[in-house]
Specification:
By secondary structure, the chain is α/β, with parallel strands linked by helices. It is built from 14 helices and 22 strands.
Length: 476
């Protein structure tokens, strides 16, 4: 029997190719924001090993098209290899190349943001050319454009859909959703105008999204009516603002929404509540979710609050025995970490706790004191994510160093700095801390034996034994 060298097997070559770098992050000139840049030099070198390496890796090299990151690639090259595109991303404002130049017919995931009528027609043709296999679609309409029902006629495999900036007068949204009931599992709606809130009757029959598991809505249909059509909803992200037509600034609207979730969504496990409604309104919604049997109560809760009232805290603690993820986002300047930490210490199954304070006057040292004083009753905590306190206070107490230099010789008290996972400094000079502050921070969480990720003011640290684990910020 003739043996074949492993590096001549396409399956092995494909595995190797998945480890080769294709992308880098750079700062955009002017804005300073991070952006992807297509840098396939190493990958391209491997293509030259042999014909089988070339033929196997070419589809991997060109499987992902990102317009901004690949703007330096000549159009003829993109056209030639577009048959391999599986993911297609063209963001608004990052330049446009004629989609009709591409010959992609195997796209599985598409993000399209046409800005003109001509680009809109091109995006429609691309959707039609790939309708048989398209599973994920994000479609941002040009200003003032009306969503057409017929554009979705062939998308029978679509599982994830995000729509934003479309006019949907006359019930178009419901008719589109009716066409997708056999496949749609995730729906995100943002800034739609003319939404019909009559309950979704299409030709006399109510639309039921039987497969929908996740729903995220901002400026969409009345959520109390919409979730009635989602019997298997597991995750819901709701933006509830006082300026919306169906919100009358009283407790009845929250009770109506809570009743819809309780009655029609028995499988709800994760709830995110954003928006400007007051804390007592959010407390009503959170509290009434507890009417779901305790064996199937909320596992994840994220809430945007202006202040943490006792009523809101008590509502969250109704779910204390089941919560595994808890996040709070606040813009108040008077956040009290000691008060907030009363919540997670009473949640024995909590693995992830996050506090993101957009503005705060609380001292970083008082936050450390609250961490040390917290009587943790749970050893389940794995991720502690704190964006609170004054970052400049990390300079106090002793000599300061750039964080990457502070950890250059190894971990501090068993913790590594994770520079690629955090929010980079606005300054090219990096982030400065004192070693004394770092040590006090890590000492404050010593009692959490299972803690593997600690994030403070955009800087991510990983315990030695978990350093290679992936990390995804909860609220971003």
């Amino acid at each position: 029997m003739t043996s074949i060298h492993p590096l001549k097997l396409p399956e092995i070559i494909t595995l190797v190719g998945n480890f080769l770098p294709l992308w880098s992050q750079e700062r955009a000139q002017g804005t300073g924001r991070l952006k992807l840049v297509f840098l396939p030099k190493t990958f391209h070198t491997c293509l030259l090993v042999s014909k089988i390496w070339h033929d196997t890796l070419i589809p991997l090299l060109w499987s992902y098209y990102e317009a901004e990151a690949m703007e330096v690639v000549p159009l003829p090259t993109l056209t030639r290899y577009s048959i391999h595109f599986r993911t297609f991303c063209q963001y608004r404002g990052c330049g446009s190349r004629a989609l009709d130049s591409f010959g992609c017919r195997r796209v599985v995931k598409a993000m399209l943001s046409p800005e003109t009528i001509e680009e809109l027609e091109e995006s429609r043709r691309m959707m039609k050319d790939n309708d048989g296999g398209l599973k994920e679609l994000e479609w941002n309409g040009p200003t003032g454009s009306t969503l057409r029902v017929e554009d979705f006629a062939g998308l029978r495999s679509l599982e994830r859909l995000k729509l934003s900036r479309w006019k949907v007068d006359g019930g178009q949204l419901w008719r589109v959703l009716e066409m997708l009931v056999g496949s749609l599992r995730v729906l995100e709606i943002d800034w739609l105008s003319g939404v019909d809130d009559d309950g979704g009757d299409v030709q006399g029959a109510a639309v039921t999204l039987a497969l929908l598991e996740a729903y995220c809505a901002s400026y969409g249909p009345d959520p109390a009516n919409f979730v009635k059509r989602c019997p298997n909803l597991v995750r819901s992200v709701l933006s509830l603002d006082t300026g919306k037509g169906y919100y009358k600034d009283d407790n009845k609207d929250m009770a109506r929404l809570a009743d819809s979730l309780r009655t029609h969504c028995p499988n709800l496990r994760a709830l995110t509540i954003n928006g400007s409604i007051p804390p007592d309104q959010k407390a009503i919604l959170i509290r009434n979710c507890a009417s779901i049997p305790s064996s199937s109560s909320l596992l994840e809760l994220v809430v945007d609050v202006q202040s943490m009232s006792k009523d809101l805290m008590d509502s969250i603690l109704i779910h204390a025995q089941t919560l595994e993820t808890l996040g709070t986002l606040t813009s108040t300047r008077n956040i009290m970490m000691e008060q907030l930490l009363q919540i997670p210490v009473q949640c024995p199954r909590l693995k992830w706790f996050a506090v993101h304070a957009i503005y705060t006057r609380e001292s970083a040292w008082s936050i450390l004191g609250a961490l040390k004083a917290a009587a943790w009753q749970s050893s389940a905590m794995e991720i502690l994510d704190l964006d609170a306190g004054d970052p400049s206070e990390a300079w106090v107490k002793g000599e300061v160093f750039m964080l990457k230099d502070l950890f250059a010789s190894g971990p501090i008290l068993g913790w590594y700095f994770h520079p690629k996972e955090g929010l980079l400094s606005y300054s090219d000079d990096g982030v400065f801390w004192s070693e004394a502050f770092a040590r006090e921070l890590f000492e404050a969480v010593e009692g959490l034996e299972k803690l593997r990720i600690l994030r403070w003011c955009g800087n991510v640290f990983a315990r030695s034994s978990f350093y290679d684990r992936a990390y995804t910020p909860l609220l971003y």
